[in-house]
Amino acid sequence: MCHHLNENLDIDEPKQLRFVCFVTISITFFLFFDRPNWKPEEKIQLIIQHWIRILEIEFGWINEFDKLVVNYIHTIMQFDTFRLSSKLINTFNGHTSDVCSIDYSIFDNCQFICSGSHDNTVRVWDIDNNKQIQSFNGHSNHVNCVKFSPYHYHNHHQHVICSSSSDNTIRFWDFEYNQQLQMFDEHKLD
Protein backbone atom coordinates (compact mmCIF):
# COMPACT_ATOMS: atom_id res chain seq x y z
CA MET A 1 0.00 0.00 0.00
CA CYS A 2 1.29 3.47 -0.85
CA HIS A 3 0.99 6.15 1.80
CA HIS A 4 0.37 9.86 1.26
CA LEU A 5 3.32 11.82 -0.04
CA ASN A 6 4.18 13.73 3.12
CA GLU A 7 3.96 10.82 5.54
CA ASN A 8 7.21 9.35 6.85
CA LEU A 9 6.05 5.76 7.08
CA ASP A 10 7.53 2.50 5.90
CA ILE A 11 6.34 1.97 2.35
CA ASP A 12 5.62 -1.54 1.19
CA GLU A 13 6.21 -2.48 -2.42
CA PRO A 14 3.19 -1.08 -4.34
CA LYS A 15 1.06 -3.12 -6.68
CA GLN A 16 2.58 -2.52 -10.09
CA LEU A 17 0.50 -1.05 -12.87
CA ARG A 18 2.00 -2.79 -15.82
CA PHE A 19 0.65 -1.00 -18.89
CA VAL A 20 -0.76 2.45 -19.40
CA CYS A 21 -2.54 3.65 -22.47
CA PHE A 22 -4.61 6.68 -23.43
CA VAL A 23 -7.24 5.92 -26.06
CA THR A 24 -9.30 8.56 -27.82
CA ILE A 25 -12.72 6.97 -27.39
CA SER A 26 -14.91 9.52 -29.16
CA ILE A 27 -14.02 7.97 -32.54
CA THR A 28 -15.76 4.75 -31.50
CA PHE A 29 -19.24 6.10 -30.79
CA PHE A 30 -20.50 5.00 -34.20
CA LEU A 31 -19.59 1.41 -33.37
CA PHE A 32 -22.22 1.25 -30.66
CA PHE A 33 -25.00 3.32 -32.18
CA ASP A 34 -27.27 0.31 -32.55
CA ARG A 35 -26.54 -0.94 -29.00
CA PRO A 36 -27.64 1.83 -26.61
CA ASN A 37 -28.08 -0.59 -23.69
CA TRP A 38 -24.37 -1.49 -23.57
CA LYS A 39 -22.51 -0.50 -20.43
CA PRO A 40 -19.31 1.56 -20.83
CA GLU A 41 -17.27 -1.43 -19.64
CA GLU A 42 -18.73 -3.59 -22.44
CA LYS A 43 -17.90 -0.94 -25.02
CA ILE A 44 -14.34 -0.69 -23.75
CA GLN A 45 -14.02 -4.49 -23.80
CA LEU A 46 -14.97 -4.51 -27.50
CA ILE A 47 -12.40 -1.82 -28.21
CA ILE A 48 -9.72 -3.79 -26.41
CA GLN A 49 -10.57 -6.96 -28.33
CA HIS A 50 -11.04 -5.54 -31.83
CA TRP A 51 -10.16 -1.87 -32.32
CA ILE A 52 -7.11 -0.97 -30.24
CA ARG A 53 -4.75 -1.09 -33.23
CA ILE A 54 -6.60 1.55 -35.26
CA LEU A 55 -7.29 4.13 -32.54
CA GLU A 56 -5.04 6.99 -31.53
CA ILE A 57 -3.10 5.42 -28.66
CA GLU A 58 -0.47 6.80 -26.32
CA PHE A 59 1.52 4.02 -24.68
CA GLY A 60 3.44 3.86 -21.43
CA TRP A 61 5.34 0.61 -20.91
CA ILE A 62 5.36 -0.54 -17.33
CA ASN A 63 6.74 -3.86 -16.08
CA GLU A 64 4.67 -6.88 -17.21
CA PHE A 65 2.53 -5.09 -19.85
CA ASP A 66 -0.95 -6.23 -18.92
CA LYS A 67 -2.77 -3.15 -17.60
CA LEU A 68 -4.58 -0.47 -19.52
CA VAL A 69 -5.78 2.93 -18.40
CA VAL A 70 -8.35 4.41 -20.72
CA ASN A 71 -10.34 7.63 -20.83
CA TYR A 72 -14.10 7.22 -21.32
CA ILE A 73 -16.14 10.43 -21.27
CA HIS A 74 -15.84 11.82 -17.69
CA THR A 75 -14.08 8.88 -16.06
CA ILE A 76 -10.73 7.14 -16.15
CA MET A 77 -10.80 3.36 -16.06
CA GLN A 78 -8.03 0.92 -15.26
CA PHE A 79 -8.24 -2.48 -16.95
CA ASP A 80 -6.46 -5.77 -16.53
CA THR A 81 -5.85 -6.44 -20.23
CA PHE A 82 -4.22 -8.73 -22.74
CA ARG A 83 -5.78 -11.77 -21.12
CA LEU A 84 -8.85 -13.74 -22.11
CA SER A 85 -10.51 -12.70 -18.86
CA SER A 86 -9.90 -8.93 -19.15
CA LYS A 87 -11.84 -7.00 -16.55
CA LEU A 88 -12.34 -3.52 -15.18
CA ILE A 89 -10.13 -2.97 -12.12
CA ASN A 90 -10.79 0.65 -11.15
CA THR A 91 -12.72 3.71 -12.24
CA PHE A 92 -11.53 7.18 -11.22
CA ASN A 93 -14.45 9.63 -11.09
CA GLY A 94 -14.22 13.36 -10.44
CA HIS A 95 -14.15 15.31 -13.67
CA THR A 96 -17.40 16.99 -14.68
CA SER A 97 -16.64 17.07 -18.41
CA ASP A 98 -14.66 15.10 -21.01
CA VAL A 99 -11.19 13.88 -20.03
CA CYS A 100 -8.74 14.98 -22.73
CA SER A 101 -5.43 13.62 -21.50
CA ILE A 102 -3.92 11.29 -18.92
CA ASP A 103 -0.41 10.34 -17.90
CA TYR A 104 1.07 7.74 -15.53
CA SER A 105 4.18 7.85 -13.36
CA ILE A 106 5.84 6.45 -10.25
CA PHE A 107 7.27 8.82 -7.62
CA ASP A 108 8.81 7.48 -4.41
CA ASN A 109 7.36 3.98 -5.04
CA CYS A 110 3.83 5.41 -5.37
CA GLN A 111 1.85 5.15 -8.61
CA PHE A 112 -0.05 8.16 -9.94
CA ILE A 113 -2.29 9.12 -12.82
CA CYS A 114 -2.80 12.77 -13.74
CA SER A 115 -5.70 13.86 -15.92
CA GLY A 116 -6.75 17.02 -17.75
CA SER A 117 -10.33 17.79 -18.70
CA HIS A 118 -12.75 20.10 -20.46
CA ASP A 119 -13.88 21.07 -16.93
CA ASN A 120 -10.66 23.21 -16.85
CA THR A 121 -9.05 21.11 -14.10
CA VAL A 122 -5.94 19.00 -13.66
CA ARG A 123 -6.42 16.12 -11.22
CA VAL A 124 -3.99 13.66 -9.63
CA TRP A 125 -5.01 10.14 -8.61
CA ASP A 126 -3.19 7.74 -6.28
CA ILE A 127 -3.56 4.36 -7.99
CA ASP A 128 -2.66 2.32 -4.92
CA ASN A 129 -5.38 3.97 -2.81
CA ASN A 130 -7.82 4.55 -5.71
CA LYS A 131 -8.30 8.17 -4.61
CA GLN A 132 -7.96 11.64 -6.03
CA ILE A 133 -5.24 13.45 -4.08
CA GLN A 134 -5.13 16.85 -5.84
CA SER A 135 -7.20 19.08 -8.10
CA PHE A 136 -5.78 22.22 -9.72
CA ASN A 137 -8.23 24.86 -10.93
CA GLY A 138 -5.92 27.53 -12.42
CA HIS A 139 -6.83 27.12 -16.09
CA SER A 140 -9.70 29.21 -17.47
CA ASN A 141 -10.39 26.93 -20.44
CA HIS A 142 -10.13 23.25 -21.46
CA VAL A 143 -7.00 21.39 -20.34
CA ASN A 144 -5.73 19.64 -23.47
CA CYS A 145 -2.62 17.83 -22.27
CA VAL A 146 -1.02 16.76 -18.97
CA LYS A 147 2.37 15.13 -18.39
CA PHE A 148 4.40 14.22 -15.33
CA SER A 149 7.84 15.82 -15.34
CA PRO A 150 10.66 13.30 -14.88
CA TYR A 151 13.12 16.21 -15.10
CA HIS A 152 11.79 17.87 -11.93
CA TYR A 153 11.68 14.57 -10.07
CA HIS A 154 15.14 13.31 -11.00
CA ASN A 155 16.92 16.69 -10.73
CA HIS A 156 15.04 18.42 -7.90
CA HIS A 157 13.00 15.62 -6.27
CA GLN A 158 9.78 17.55 -6.99
CA HIS A 159 6.44 15.97 -7.92
CA VAL A 160 5.52 18.13 -10.92
CA ILE A 161 2.90 18.02 -13.67
CA CYS A 162 2.95 20.16 -16.80
CA SER A 163 -0.42 21.10 -18.34
CA SER A 164 -1.45 22.97 -21.47
CA SER A 165 -4.81 24.58 -22.03
CA SER A 166 -7.04 26.33 -24.54
CA ASP A 167 -6.57 29.42 -22.34
CA ASN A 168 -3.19 29.69 -24.16
CA THR A 169 -1.13 28.89 -21.06
CA ILE A 170 1.28 26.17 -20.03
CA ARG A 171 1.47 25.61 -16.28
CA PHE A 172 3.66 23.61 -13.93
CA TRP A 173 2.02 22.22 -10.77
CA ASP A 174 3.69 20.73 -7.70
CA PHE A 175 1.18 18.09 -6.61
CA GLU A 176 3.02 17.23 -3.40
CA TYR A 177 2.64 20.77 -2.04
CA ASN A 178 -0.55 21.68 -3.96
CA GLN A 179 0.76 24.76 -5.74
CA GLN A 180 1.31 26.24 -9.16
CA LEU A 181 5.04 26.66 -9.76
CA GLN A 182 5.10 28.52 -13.04
CA MET A 183 2.89 29.76 -15.87
CA PHE A 184 3.84 30.54 -19.45
CA ASP A 185 1.31 32.72 -21.27
CA GLU A 186 3.24 33.73 -24.38
CA HIS A 187 0.83 31.91 -26.73
CA LYS A 188 -1.44 34.72 -27.85
CA LEU A 189 -4.20 34.60 -30.43
CA ASP A 190 -3.53 36.96 -33.36
TrEMBL record:
It comes from the Eukaryota. Keywords: Repeat, WD repeat. SMART domains: WD40 (SM00320). WD repeats lie at residues 92-135, 136-183. GO terms for cellular component: transferase complex. Pfam families: WD40. This is Uncharacterized protein. The lineage of its organism: Eukaryota, Sar, Rhizaria, Retaria, Foraminifera.
